[in-house]
Each structure stands twice: as C-alpha cells, then as structure tokens.
C-alpha cells in the first residue's frame, strides 16, 4: 500500500464464516465485490474441520468464494482432543500435526488461493505462556515448520498478527527463524475501540515503522499486512468508522483487511464459548440484517475516493462570541432548506447529521458551496450523547429534525426506531439543558401522533375521501385531537413530542412542537415511505410505474418547503412568549389532495398518464389527514402561500434540472470520474 494515494490502494475485509452459514456466505460475496474489495480473509478452523459436518462445510465454502476474490485462509484452532490444554487455542500434543493439517488444506483447496495465514493473534492466547521459553519454542516449531513446507510447495505464507502489537515478541520470532520463512507478517490494530489499545496506541506511522524495523532485520523481502483493523459502531459512530478506515488506508502497510464485513449476531459466542464486550458485536460495515452502514454505502458508491469527501470534513471552528443555530438532521430535506434560509440571513449554523440517509451528503455540499465557513458540519449521531454534546455548548437555538422517518422501517426495526426518535430526542434535550444556555428547541413531530383517525366518518367520492363533519371538512384535524400512538413510529415520535413539551415545564427550556403533515419541495430525494411527492415525480419523469398502497383516495394536505421553513422561523421568533406549545403544520384544506388527484396532475406535468399500480393498505395509514393550522396562523401570523399545483410544477422543474440533467453536484462529480 505504500507509495500510492490511499484512494488508489486495494483493500479487503475479514469475515469469519461459521459452519452452516450458507445463506450468509451467499449474501456476503456480492456485497463485498460491490464495495470494491479485492481481498477476503476468513478462517479454516482445524477444530471445525474435524467436527461433524466440518469437511462438507469447507468443501462448499472455499470453492464458493475462492474463485471470486483473492482469498486468505487463516488456519488455526486445535481440535480439543489434540490440544495440550484441551482448548482450541492451545498447542497440539504433536506439533507436526499442525503442519500436516496445513498440508492437507493446501492439497484439498490450494488452487483457490495464493497465500495462507498461519494462526491468529498468537501472542494474545492465554493458553500459550509466553514467559516460558518452551512455549516460544513450541510455537516457532509448529508455525515455522508449516511455513517452510508451504513455501516449498509453492504457496506464500503469512504470520498471524500479534495483538496487541509487541515488537519484542516479533523480534523473538525473528531470532527463532520464523520471520525468515514467511512472505508477510500480520498486524492487528483497533484504535478508538479497545481501551487496552488506547493506552499504548501511538499511530499507524509509528507502529508500522516499528514493525518494519524488526521485520527487515530478518527478512527484507517480507511484506507487512494489516490483517485486522476496525472500529466498533456500538455507540452508532458510523462516521468515526469511516475516518478510522481512511486513516488505516493511509498507513504504509502493504495490504489491509478491515474487520469485519457483518456485525456478529448477538447469540454467537465469539471465542471459547464466551460472549465478549458488546463492542465486539458492532465491528461490521453492514449490520446483522445486512443493511449497509455508512462505510459500506460510501465504498459501494465510489470507493475510498468517496470516503475522503466525508473524512476530511473539519470539526466546527466557530469564532468566540458567535452563538450558532444548531440543526439536527441538518443535511436532510427540511433541515438543509432551513439551514440555507438562516445562512442567507447571516446566521452561523451547526449542521449536525450522521449522513446515514442516501443522498443527504449532496445537501451538505450544497450548503458548503453556497455559504462556506458559516455552515459548520458536525458529523455525529443523536443516539450518542457524548458525541453530540459539544455541538450545543453555545447554541442560540436548536431545530431538531434528526429522526427515523418511515412507518414501514419502524415495523421492521422497532428498536432502532425507538433509539433514534425517542432516545435521540432526549439526548438533544439533555445536551441543551447541560449547556446552561437555555436555548430554544423546536421539534419536528408528525401527524401520526393522532393515530389512524378511524373514527372520522368519511364519504367516498370518485377520487377522494371527504369528512362528513363540517368543521373537519373546512379546517382539518386540530391540536385538541386526543393523541393515539399507532405503529412503533407513532409511538417513538409521540414520546419524543411529549418529552419536548415537558422540558418546557420541568426545566424551563423554551420548546415548541410542529406536528407536520406532508412537506415537499427542492432538495428532496424521495422514497415511498418518506418524501413520497418527490418519489412520485421521480418515477413519472423516469417513465417508471408508481406503486400506491390502498385505493389512492386517501387525502393529505401537502405543504411546499418554503412555507414550512417560514413556519419554523416564525415559531422561533415568538417561542419565548409561548413556550411548551404544540402546533399543526400542513397545507390546510386549500392544499388537500388525494393521491389519485396528485397523480393526475403529475401526468399533466410529464405529458402522459402515469403507470399506477396498487398494493394493499399499510399498517397505520390514515384515509384522511388535513392539518388545522388556525392556531399557528393566529399565534404567529403564518400562512401557506404556495398553491399545491404550482408547487408541484416547481419541484418537477428542479428534479429535471438536478436529477436528470447533471445539475446536481453529485451527478457532476460522478460524471467527472
């Protein structure tokens, strides 16, 4: 890896496949290749191979993955019946038996790989007493003999990485002749994850230099590989994982294997039948459900060059005396538009975001391009209170948009939904309270806190549902409507909604809540579950079919983003006079439209009827929701100014320019590459 820019260096991953994980192995390989990985390190466990079914497992696994990627098998774990200690981590009674097994692996599977790794983390094994000269001699005889014969047979050998790095142990390996019969030496390092490393970690340059000094003393041709390096996202530090990956890529090592690809399932005992520190279970770049974390997504989008755009973003550097506005979820659709409005008026804005959603980094680049140093990225996750606390130290006001936004996702991943929406909101409130600044907090809530509204009597018309009640028909649903949390999303947002209001009562923080209907407009990247207006337009402009759930007669009052931004700013300007209040925010009855009516208008915009397909109703869907905004109008003077047809046409023009004509920064960047 030395001598080339880091974004041009190849990289690989570690994935310890366990016997019987056929489906996971099948799923992993495409993801690895799509991420741009050149290498894969996995293990061939001697103990598992000789266990029932082990031979059949490895007979399937190695030929499956070996032809597709440069494979490094690590051969370790003594069968307990052959171990001097009765454990898989102990040395065998007959040291030559290890070399015999290596020889067997080379004969049976050797056509599928070029290198073979001999043992794993040898100096970290409690069953080798490295204070005893006999144990040094046993290990050197066991591994040295296997390496010598593997080289004689034409394979290249890798010495398992010492962990933690110990130059004295490595030097003894040289004195005993082991370094002379290997082609590469492994290194393990997890800075920022394990305290044991933090106490001794001196940086990649220092440790790589230390290692080269030892290795070149005994074998100048041997390469140095980082065979395990990683960062745990157990506190949701996905951006930190990206930064650590980039730092590791910048090292002088000749090859990198990142640990690991997938988070380890919580029911797996990772070593010797024991469950480890929870950090061990969150080292993957995809989670247990195979959902990509930020690192996997960025690698898939554009490799290490894509990572550099994120890793090089500086921490906020705000001049003393400046009290910025903090926007959580500030790279999202509403957050970015609000940030732009404030920045245009001369405010400094801290844009707190974890960049976890597809496309939001484009909004961050847009804000930086337009406003330069007054737009301060603060890349962190609201679930991690210690990581976000400093963002609020000098805040003049806080707008809290960060959240999980889809009902469907909440049904599949309710714990994540709760942690992001409920716990994340308390973290924001606590960070503000601890700052002592008493900064106002305005929270983006949802109409879903009113439940499914099944008790509203509706008339089914040709293209829409209409309430029988005259007040509902003329004004919509008011804030006096009883709360009725449906679906995990409704529960998490509803709980957050109530905590925000209570912090005004309990802690004297000026807070406000806006329960939003459907917002649309520029900078929206549209999915079925969130940003569905933009999603419909994107599908129609691309000539693709649009799927709607239910009959399409359900009604929403849609609000253009400029009107929404004005509402948030007006509420902030009056928050000290009316803290702890809740307001509905939507387009009102004048902008109430059914999905079928919206699709008909989109057909006019694109010049042809759209291809509509129907699926069944989804959990928590409301047949009718229109926000009664009279309270907001009376208290702030706000009015929705953009008629929905005009707003939809404006959004369509923006999408044509920025998503289909190369106008967007991201489109231009990719085209340049």
From TrEMBL:
Q: Which SUPFAM superfamilies match?
A: (Trans)glycosidases, NAD(P)-binding Rossmann-fold domains
InterPro entries associated with the record = Epimerase_deHydtase (IPR001509), GH (IPR017853), NAD(P)-bd_dom_sf (IPR036291)
Q: In which pathway does it act?
A: Bacterial outer membrane biogenesis; LPS O-antigen biosynthesis
Q: Which Gene3D superfamilies match?
A: Glycosidases, NAD(P)-binding Rossmann-like Domain
Specify the NAD-dependent epimerase/dehydratase domain's residue ranges.
325-586
Domain of life, per the record?
Answer: Bacteria
* Similarity comment: Belongs to the NAD(P)-dependent epimerase/dehydratase family.
Q: Could you tell me what this protein is called?
A: NAD-dependent epimerase/dehydratase family protein
Biological source species? Martelella lutilitoris
């Amino acid at each position: 890896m030395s001598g080339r820019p880091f974004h041009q260096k190849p990289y690989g991953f570690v994935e310890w496949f366990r016997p019987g994980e056929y489906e996971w192995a099948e799923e992993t390989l495409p993801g690895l290749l799509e991420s741009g990985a050149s290498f894969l390190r996995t293990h061939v466990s001697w103990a598992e191979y000789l266990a029932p079914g082990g031979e059949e497992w490895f007979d399937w696994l190695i030929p499956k993955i070996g032809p597709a990627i440069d494979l490094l098998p690590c051969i370790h774990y003594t069968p307990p019946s052959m171990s001097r200690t009765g454990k898989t981590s102990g040395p065998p009674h007959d040291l030559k038996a290890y070399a015999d097994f290596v020889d067997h692996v080379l004969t049976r599977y050797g056509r599928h790989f070029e290198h073979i790794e001999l043992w794993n983390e040898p100096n970290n094994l409690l069953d080798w007493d490295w204070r005893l000269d006999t144990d040094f001699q046993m290990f050197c005889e066991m591994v040295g003999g296997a390496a010598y014969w593997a080289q004689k047979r034409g394979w290249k050998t890798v010495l398992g990485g010492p962990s933690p790095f110990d130059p004295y142990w490595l030097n003894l390996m040289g004195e005993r002749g082991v370094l002379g019969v290997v082609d590469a030496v492994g290194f393990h390092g997890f800075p920022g994850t394990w305290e044991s490393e933090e106490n001794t970690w001196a940086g990649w340059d220092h440790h790589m230099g230390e290692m080269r000094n030892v290795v070149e003393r005994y074998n100048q041709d041997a390469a140095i590989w980082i065979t395990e390096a990683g960062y745990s996202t157990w506190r949701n530090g996905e951006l930190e994982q990206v930064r650590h990956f980039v730092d590791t890529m910048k090292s002088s090592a000749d090859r990198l294997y990142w640990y690991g690809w997938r988070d380890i399932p919580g029911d797996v005992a990772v070593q010797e039948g024991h469950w480890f520190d929870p950090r061990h279970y969150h080292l993957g770049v995809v989670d247990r459900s195979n959902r990509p974390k930020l690192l996997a997504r960025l690698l898939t989008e554009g490799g290490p060059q894509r990572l550099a755009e994120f890793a090089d973003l500086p921490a906020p550097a705000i001049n003393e005396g400046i009290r910025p506005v903090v926007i959580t979820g500030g790279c999202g659709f509403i957050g970015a538009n609000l940030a732009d409005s404030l920045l245009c008026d001369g405010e400094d804005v801290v844009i707190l975001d974890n960049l976890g959603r597809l496309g939001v980094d484009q909004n961050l680049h847009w804000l930086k391009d337009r406003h330069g140093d007054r737009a301060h990225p603060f890349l962190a996750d609201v679930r991690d209170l210690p990581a976000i606390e400093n963002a609020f130290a000098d805040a003049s006001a806080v707008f809290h948009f960060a959240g999980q936004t889809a009902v469907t996702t909440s049904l599949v991943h309710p714990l994540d939904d709760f942690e992001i929406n409920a716990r994340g909101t308390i973290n924001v409130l606590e960070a503000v309270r601890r700052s002592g600044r008493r900064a106002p907090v305005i929270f983006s809530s949802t109409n879903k806190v009113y439940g499914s509204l099944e008790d509203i009597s509706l008339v089914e018309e040709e293209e829409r549902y209409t309430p029988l009640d005259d007040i509902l028909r003329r004004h919509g649903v008011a804030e006096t409507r009883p709360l009725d949390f449906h679906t995990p999303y409704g529960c998490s947002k509803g709980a957050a909604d109530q905590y925000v209001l209570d912090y005004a009562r309990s802690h004297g923080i000026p807070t406000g809540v806006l329960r939003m209907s459907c917002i649309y407009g520029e900078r929206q990247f549209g999915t079925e579950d969130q940003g569905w207006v933009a999603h419909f337009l994107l599908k129609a402009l691309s000539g693709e079919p649009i799927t709607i759930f239910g009959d399409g007669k359900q009604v929403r009052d849609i609000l253009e983003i400029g009107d929404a931004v004005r509402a948030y700013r007006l509420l902030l300007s009056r928050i000290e006079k009316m803290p702890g209040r809740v307001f509905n925010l939507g387009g009102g009855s004048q902008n109430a439209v059914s999905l079928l009516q919206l699709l008909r208008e989109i057909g006019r915009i694109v010049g042809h009827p759209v291809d509509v397909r129907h699926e069944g109703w989804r959990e928590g869907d409301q047949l009718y929701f229109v926000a009664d905004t009279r309270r907001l109008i009376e208290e702030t003077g706000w009015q929705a100014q953009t008629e929905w047809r005009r707003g939809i046409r404006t959004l369509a023009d923006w999408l044509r320019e920025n998503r289909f004509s190369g106008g967007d920064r991201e489109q231009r960047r990719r085209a340049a590459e």
